Amino acid sequence: MPIQFPSNPTQGQTYTYNGNTWTYDGEGWEPGVAIGATGATGITGNTGPTGATGIGATGIQGNTGPTGATGLTGATGPAGSGGSGGGANVTVSDTAPVGSSQGAMWLNTETGELNVYFANAWATVGGDGGITSVYDVMTSSTGYFDLPTGNTAQRPGAPDNGVIRFNSETARVEYYDSVAAAWMAVTSTSTATAMSVEYLVVAGGGGGGARFGGGGGAGGFRTGTSTVNFTSTYIVTIGSGGSGSTDAAGGGRGSSGSNSIFSTITSTGGGGGGRGSPATSPTAGTTNTGGGGGGGRGFGGPGGAAGGSGIVIVRYLGAPRGSGGTIVQNGGYTYHTFLASSTFTA
């Protein structure tokens, strides 16, 4: 019976029948020996040399990936060593250090004040960091020193002797004089030879008339300003009040008051009262007001009353520098009040 070989064999394919093996060589089936068991694997041979590196184009860079989550904060490292010159060096003593440099500090153990050295002098520093007092300071500044400013009502209630301020009401620099217990205006130390003064000149009042007489007229008065020369002396005359009429029976007139004078300024005395007839007693004019005396009453009554004497008041801005009369200070002005004839020296 013929052998039935496989249809459509491939080259190298084998076929065994009744212990015989055939191999297909691409053209036909060739008889061969039977295939024995596979032998042991032989020893691996040496690695051959590396082949040449091939040339290839660099690939396109890929997109950047998303940012990863933030890692945990690391432990705090040890503190670094302290730097030099970090703090100010304060001298503590009851006497000021000698040979100090700009910016040096000194704590006065006697007063408890902290001082800073600048502009070649020690300055006391207040608790708020501001300079509260400066002494023996020399400066080349061309600016200004700003004084405390306020009106008369805003003056300190219990000032120390020598404190200084600017009075916005009188437009004058003023200081406190503890001896006079008053604020004194700082006056000019220029080469001026004169100053301006204000004056009030009141003449004496007229005396009253007798026997129903009229009252005496008030003394005339004048006010204004005048220029007076320093060291010059000016006559001050206080006009007396006119006497009242004593002629109760005849009804005489009162006499006129006398003129008051300051320098070249004259106020005329009041006229005496005429005669007339009410039944009330007359009243005398008040001293140093220039008031006229009252008129006398009718038959049997007293005569007319005397007029009041005059007064002269001179004032100027600033501390007292003239003499004469009663001198007082008020509101930044100096007043000279004359109740009797005298002189005023500028």
What does this structure look like?
This protein is mostly beta strands. The protein folds into 4 domains: 1-33, no CATH class; 90-134, no CATH class; 149-185, no CATH class; 190-346, no CATH class. The chain has no helices and 21 strands. The strands form 5 sheets. The protein has a 5-stranded mixed beta sheet, with no helix packed on it. A 5-stranded antiparallel beta sheet has the order 14-13-18-20-19, with no helix packed on it. A hairpin with a 4-residue loop joins strand 11 (172-177) and strand 12 (182-185). The radius of gyration is 62 Å and the shape is rod-shaped. The protein starts with 13 loop residues before the first strand and ends with a strand.
